[in-house]
Amino acid sequence: MAKQRFRDTKKGKVSKIEPKKKSKANYIVANKRDYFKAFLTDSFMLLMPIMYIVFYAVFSGREGFAEHKAIGWLLILVPLAIIETLFLIKNAQTPGMKAYNLKLIFLPTEQKPPASTIMLRQILSKIAFLTFGWIFIFFSKSRRTLQDIIAGTAIVYDQDKK
Q: Distance (Å, rounded) from C-alpha 107 to C-alpha 139?
């Protein structure tokens, strides 16, 4: 739009400038039930094989794992975080999220998050898991977890694959 001239304003020839309207969000945040089912699916598809390898290949049984629980959980959670991060970087979905038609988006752009944001979210999710921060999802009106709120992401329904 061209610059407004004073003489045009004085004569009343100026059209009103309309304020920009906020665009409505193009996504629907996933409900707790689907988020939990995706989490359980990921637990069995990704976590259980890692736990099996750590229990029996690294510690030679449950008794060895029981003696070194801190190291054992570190050997479980670090590979899990790396695998989940790679899935999220590649196509913004883990296998559980894909099964329930969910994806991770970065709220400012409503697109796939950058790798640094995904890594931050994964670190925060493991900390939230260990410190019971995951309970926050039950009290949040936005239906987002603590790590999603801090990282600026959300688990949403994938509109492209309906």
A: 20
**How many angstroms separate the CA atoms of 138 and 136, rounded?**
5
**Full DSSP string of 47-71:** IHHHHHIIIIIISSSHHHHHHTHHH
Q: How many CA atoms lie within 13 A of 115 on its CB side?
A: 5
Say which residue the tokens 């029981």 belong to. Answer: 66
pLDDT in tens, 1-59: 556 666 666 666 656 655 554 546 677 888 889 989 998 999 899 999 999 999 999 99
- Which residue in the block uniquely carries the two structure tokens 């045009």? 8
Contacts of 93 (CB under 8 A, 6+ apart): 87, 102, 103, 104, 158
How many CB atoms lie under 10 A from the CB of residue 130? 11
Strand, coil or helix: 74: helix
Phi, psi of 90 (to 5 degrees): -65, -55
Q: Taking the domains of the chain in order of start, what are their residue ranges? A: 28-155
**Are the beta carbons of 37 and 44 closer than 8 angstroms?**
no
